[in-house]
């Protein structure tokens, strides 16, 4: 899976996902840190990458309608410490059929993963 990792997620997640065979680019590595959400979104879509973020600006399914993009994973943890984020995303990518999420809007919490499909 081709993934774009937003700047609000720990960089260690990129290494974990790469070890699972995913093609991961980070906002930081591409020099997009601090850029407006629209720039991040445009880059992810231009590269046909699944965007992973904690940014609620990407949570409106009417704007980011499933099927109209390459996919979004919105991570919403009560305690979004660095280690909790790393652990939860690692677990989600080991357990879930993430390859089927292309074009989907996905929300991961501590307890569940909700997938809105096109």
Question: In brief, what are we looking at here?
Answer:
By secondary structure, the chain is an alpha/beta fold. It has helices spanning 12-19, 37-46, 82-95; strands at residues 2-5, 23-26, 50-53, 72-75, 105-108, 113-116.
Q: What fraction strand?
A: 15-25%
Strand order, largest beta sheet:
2-1-3-4-5-6
Succession of helices and strands: EHEHEEHEE
Cα-based radius of gyration, to the nearest Å: 13 Å
Second rung of CATH, namely the architecture = 3-Layer(aba) Sandwich
Uncertain stretches: none
What's the tally of helices?
A: 3
Architecture overview:
By secondary structure, the protein is α/β, with parallel strands linked by helices. Helices cover 27% and strands 20% of the residues. The chain has one domain (2-116): 3-Layer(aba) Sandwich (Rossmann fold), CATH 3.40.50. The protein contains three helices and six strands, in the order βαβαββαββ. Strands 2-1-3-4-5-6 form a six-stranded mixed β-sheet, sandwiched between helices. A hairpin with a 4-residue loop joins strand 5 (105-108) and strand 6 (113-116). Helix 1 runs parallel beside helix 3 (82-95). The two termini are 18 Å apart. The mean pLDDT is 96.
Secondary-structure map with pairings?
Layout: E1 2-5, H1 12-19, E2 23-26, H2 37-46, E3 50-53, E4 72-75, H3 82-95, E5 105-108, E6 113-116
Parallel strand pairs: 1-2, 1-3, 3-4, 4-5
Antiparallel strand pairs: 5-6
Helix pairs in contact: 1-3
């Amino acid at each position: 899976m081709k993934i774009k990792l937003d700047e609000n997620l720990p960089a260690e997640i990129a290494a974990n996902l790469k070890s699972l065979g995913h093609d991961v680019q980070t906002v930081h590595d591409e020099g997009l840190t601090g850029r407006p959400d629209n720039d991040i979104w445009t880059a992810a879509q231009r590269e046909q990458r699944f965007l992973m973020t904690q940014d609620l600006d990407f949570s409106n399914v009417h704007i980011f309608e499933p099927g109209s993009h390459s996919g979004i994973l919105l991570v919403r943890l009560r305690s979004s410490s660095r280690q909790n984020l790393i652990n939860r995303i690692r677990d989600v990518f080991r357990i879930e059929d993430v390859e089927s999420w292309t074009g989907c809007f996905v929300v991961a919490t501590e307890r569940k993963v909700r997938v809105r499909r096109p």
